[in-house]
Design a protein that fits this description.
The complex is a heterodimer of chains A (334) and B (215).
Chain A (H helix, E strand, L loop, with lengths): L2 E10 L17 E4 L2 E4 L6 E6 L8 H16 L8 E7 L10 E6 L7 E10 L5 E9 L4 E2 L9 E2 H13 L7 E5 L5 E6 L20 H11 L2 H6 L1 E9 L2 E2 L4 E6 L5 E5 L6 E7 L2 E8 L23 E2 L4 E3 L8 E5 L3
Parallel strand pairs in A: 4-5, 4-6, 6-8, 9-10, 13-21
Antiparallel strand pairs in A: 1-7, 2-3, 7-8, 11-12, 13-14, 13-17, 15-16, 15-18, 18-19, 18-20
Helix pairs in contact in A: 1-2
Chain B lengths: L1 H16 L5 E10 L2 E11 L5 E11 L2 E11 L4 E10 L2 E7 L8 E19 L6 E16 L5 E18 L8 E15 L8 E14 L1
Antiparallel strand pairs in B: 1-4, 1-11, 2-3, 3-6, 4-5, 5-7, 6-7, 7-8, 8-9, 9-10, 10-11
Bound molecules: zinc ion.
Zinc ion binds next to β1 and α2 of chain A.
Chain lengths: 334, 215
Amino acid sequence: MTRTALIATTLAGLAVFASAAHLEAYITLGATVGGRVVNLRWDRTVDYFVTNRDIADVTAPQLQGAIDRAFTSWAAVPRTSLGHQFVGFTGAEPVGGDGLTVIGFRSRPELDRTLAAASFEVDNVTGRILEVDIYFNSSQPWSVAAGGRAGSFDLESVGVHEVGHLLGLGHSGLGETELRADGGRRVVAKRAVMFPIAYPGGNIDDRTLEADDKAGITELYGTSDAIRNTGSLSGRVTLGGQGIFGAHITAVHTATGDIVGGFSLTSRGDFVISGLVPGLYIVRAEPLDDADIGSVFDDDAGVNLNFAPMFHDRLVAVPRGGTGPGIEIKVKAK
Amino acid sequence: MRTLCFAVVLILPASAFAQSPRLELTVGAVVDGASSAGVTRAELVDPAGNPFTLFEAKHRTTWAPGLEGRVSWRVTERWAVGVTGSWSRPDFETRISGDVEGADPVTAALGMDRFAVELGVERRFGTSTKWQPFAGLAAGWLRELADDRALADSGVAAHVGGGLKYRVREGRPGWLGHIALRAEARLTLRCGGITLGDAGHRWSPTVAAALVIAR
Ligand SMILES: [Zn+2]
């Protein structure tokens, strides 16, 4: 059996690096196996270990508690089926090659914008996940205080994000940021735990999953009941008749205001957003300009940023257990 | 003596019954007025936990013509019960504006078919003239079906209203022996159906005109 480390995703306080495979749906992580793209998805209970090492302000049991709550948040999404099991504390580091899924702290002072990272090892014949390791950068300030602690990143919040990666989710585009003088980005506002840039220290909002996160995990682990009770919308983003690759599309439920995002993932500009609560949606397309492209796509992916944000000119009906009519969002050049 | 009075009370409606038909069929046109359907704010959350509005959408359903049919049964000289079925074709319409990144405002619409079946009562006044005022209320099942048949949802419709019936012909045998024209104005309340925005229910004015035949 040949093993290959395929994916590394990181969450940063100031800027990020990550990569994701291109699939015609919500951004989920994938691997190319035998010339085809395979979703990275657990087909079994996630058995995980926690590195038995304390850092300042956080003990190993406190880390394990935060991770357990993070898994529980994902498992609590209605109509999904995923399991997790803490196996025990270990002396193993959260690095690949040992066949164990290990979560722990590592000191990475050279990565001054990186809070945490998840990396996969996948069987390159079957695409089956062999192990996923998550490290939290102990060079950053961390907190496990119930209400958060000013100046320290909330371990559970970042844990929810990293466990989202472990389960197979890529990054969301549901956020607004501004560039900092040092080249990093600051979150102005966001609406997805899986947005690639964290809230500043002291904030604990990312302990709670948003509609976008729930739609993503439902796409990967939804039960047959989920398939019957949620719907999807699909279409193309075009500019002068040509498809736009990498456009960020948001669907806003008119009755609830819930927002779910996706990306156009082919050169024809095709997109699909699934796991949606049935209803009428407002659909909007915009360039991916609020996160580093590399945090969502491979850097060389040819993402088109040269168009203006645009609303689709019709409301879109998303049915229960099906897909609404295909739509075309015709954007204009900037 | 008491027995005689009782007999009179029974006889009077029976006498009136001989003059008014008991079963009415009504077919006509209806115009549903527009109704506000609330507002949606697409919001992110800033680091302090405050909402950050991406854009705002104001919703309504448009005015729409439709068809209506009614079967009513006169229970007493003044009171009747009936079942009304109606269909109309309004649009959902959403005005989107205030985009944080400057996207052009747009009005997005989607057509729908609206069906209702309501059970109601009606009180009639002034039975002796050609012009007969009436008032009534009804409530029942609402079904809304978005264009392309992708989405359908049910709810409750109710209305209160009144109008005038003009007797064109009366007192002759058969269905064409009693013919009347009917005009009505209503206030209609709809709850449920396909929902838009934050309004839990929608009010709209409705006017209807119809041909009545009876026997
Ligand atoms: Zn991430």
